[in-house]
Amino acid sequence: MAIALTTLVAEAQRYLNADSISDYCPNGLQVEGRPNVQRLVTGVTASQALIDAAIEAEADVILVHHGYFWKGEDPCVTGMKQRRLKALLANDISVLAYHLPLDVHPDVGNNVQLAAQLGITVEGPLNPDNPRTVGLVGSLDEPQSARDFARRVHQVLGREPLLVEGQQMIRRIGWCTGGGQGYIDEAVAAGVDLYLTGEASEQTFHSAQENGISFIAAGHHATERYGVQALGEYLAKRFAIEHIFIDCANPI
């Protein structure tokens, strides 16, 4: 069964409340392809590898978390950008991208989906006083050591995380998928035992160590694989179309 591309886009916009969220890139339809959709491919980033795999899969639409046209980037269609867009346009494939709307959504968002994967009970926002803070706080059913929790992260995500180990047992956790290491001070203020995100900066080590909490960097790509899959499944069920998630390996 095929649906109109405009119908798919309108539902994604509505479901994610995308028009109300200020972001660093345009959310929604970034590249327009054929007018009807039967097969939807999802992935984390609209890289050349994902485009090539989507072409092979005969996709009509690629839905991603990391799309194109970021604020501050060179607007010229040259080099890598030209090759990507040329492949999409030549094969009449659309790109639909959602960044912050997919991070914060209460059902299919990256943060709630990662919590479900790791067995964390969501309690609320990391910083209720700052709505621009993209992150959550929650708890484990039973306290465990930082090393034990890091082993679970490794098992679930299939990637050995970077661990800065504190002394206390882990019960209360703050987290933000992707490049959320800058929120570690807000996590400390929230009283967490461990803060988890995708990436680490040099100063992250010192913030964790000197504030007496544990820290895990589990990979930007690895922590953001689940929201786009959940959104893809939602749209596939809503419109009875085919959905394929393609995970292009990324060690970062």
From TrEMBL:
NCBIfam families: YbgI_SA1388. One of its GO terms (cellular component) is cytoplasm. InterPro entries: DUF34/NIF3, DUF34/NIF3_sf. It comes from the Bacteria. Belongs to the GTP cyclohydrolase I type 2/NIF3 family. A divalent metal cation binds at residues 65-66, 103, 220, 224. Keywords: Metal-binding. GO terms for molecular function: metal ion binding. This is GTP cyclohydrolase 1 type 2 homolog.
